[in-house]
TrEMBL record:
Gene3D superfamilies: FAD/NAD(P)-binding domain. SUPFAM superfamilies: FAD/NAD(P)-binding domain. It comes from Actinomadura chokoriensis. Its EC number is 1.17.8.1. This is Hydroxysqualene dehydroxylase HpnE. Residues 13-437 form the Amine oxidase domain. Keywords: Oxidoreductase. The keyword Oxidoreductase applies. Its cofactor is FAD. It comes from the Bacteria. Coiled coil: none annotated. The keyword Oxidoreductase applies. NCBIfam families: HpnE (TIGR03467). GO terms for molecular function: oxidoreductase activity.
Amino acid sequence: MTSAEVAVVGGGLAGITAALALQETGTRATIYEARPRLGGATHSFTRDGLTVDNGQHIFLKCCAAYQGLLGRLGAAHRVRVQDRFDVRVLTPGGPGGRLRRAKAPGPLHLLPALAGYRLLSPADRLRAVRASLALDRLDPDDPALDRSGMGGWLAERGQRRQARDALWDLFVTASLNIRLDDAALGPAAMVCQTALLGRSDAADIGVPTIPLGDLHGTIAAARIERGGGRIELGAKVSAVRPAEAGRPELVVNGSPVGADAVVMAVPHRMASSIVPEEASPDRTKWDGLGSSPIVNVHVVYDRPVLDEPFVAAVGSPVQWVFDRTAVSGLTGGGQYLAVSVSAADRWIDTPTAELRGVYLAALERLLPAARPARVTDFFVTRERHATFRQSPGSGALRPASATRLPGLFLAGAWTDTGWPDTMEGAVRSGLTAARLVRRHLNRVRTDGVSGR
Ligand SMILES: Cc1cc2nc3c(=O)[nH]c(=O)nc-3n(C[C@H](O)[C@H](O)[C@H](O)COP(=O)(O)OP(=O)(O)OC[C@H]3O[C@@H](n4cnc5c(N)ncnc54)[C@H](O)[C@@H]3O)c2cc1C
């Protein structure tokens, strides 16, 4: 280890990644996390013997940086990845459809999936192929795409309501946490190009097989501490400012703490008030990124009602349903389902009793086996600030990692990672910040300067 001390503020996936990447190259890092645990937006709690995640998290096989983090944590075997993209799509009272990729090189792998997708008419399937080809020609980094909407772009390319709802919205809402009609074209195009039109296995879905609190909390903490890193929990940082000799200084629980470099890996809402104006003159604009909520509706049945690990739904308030029975530790023959509802503005303030009425009825319409089943538990988790709002214009508000204050770097899924606000984006941001910190420390060491 070098004698340099790096402070990482925020113990979500971005902060965890930055700390691990630094210590792997011999730089000591201390994580200052306001909450009593690591994991940030991914965490778990217990309720009547069940271990519950705050919200179902999935990743795609193309999320290489996130899977790299799992490897670093020695936890790559704690997730299950489909051997090929395969999603059953339910509709209320109807036969539904299935999207299953072929084992052909991309993007040909999608043709049989679309050809057999019964929720679209043959004409809509053909139009969807044409729109996919047009989408593949876009440059997601073009600033004009950040200013345009995905829904309008698809409508202009002949994508009718049914195709937008039953095909495009299914993926865009889940990956960007914003309805298709409100989503910026740039990140939506990036996700579709990478996941659906890229390598044939890119969209294969991965799901943790242990609670998030273990995967990103206790396992990550043990790994960081084993590597010589320090973790300060309950450590709230209220300011960062330049101090002597160009070293940044933090205020942690009211007391000053010096560091050779700082990675600020807190959500944009906090970063805008902690980062000083001289570091990021644009910082007040970050608040314009806003928030988009996710609601998870948790239902425990007295018997199995779903025979797949997860399904999607269209034409229903249900979007995706996951079987949480094994992960939660439920025993006794019942089944625990989590309904994950992205872009949940409509539901975030709805009372639990009302959600119970809406979602139990919706599940019964989708899952015939749920009709005679008894509900033994029902509860709701709400994440009002699950991600920033990935609407037109949001890309221009995302800052790069480097700031104007030497030694202060930004990280977090909301920064300019080229990815949506996801676990993959968070991990990428942590890797970038760690790389810039190392470069900064090398410069200080060799030149004695405190430049960025
Ligand atoms: C319900 C839900 C479902 C989601 N589903 C998916 C999914 O399926 N797939 C996917 O890829 N992504 C999903 N996401 C998004 C994903 O969780 C986030 O993009 C990612 O975890 C963000 O990581 P982060 O490290 O950037 O930020 P955070 O996880 O927000 O970490 C920031 C940390 O900073 C700490 N902090 C804040 N202020 C201070 C302070 N003043 N001092 C010290 N510490 C502070 C916070 O306590 C927090 O621990 C979901 C999010 C939610 C909420």
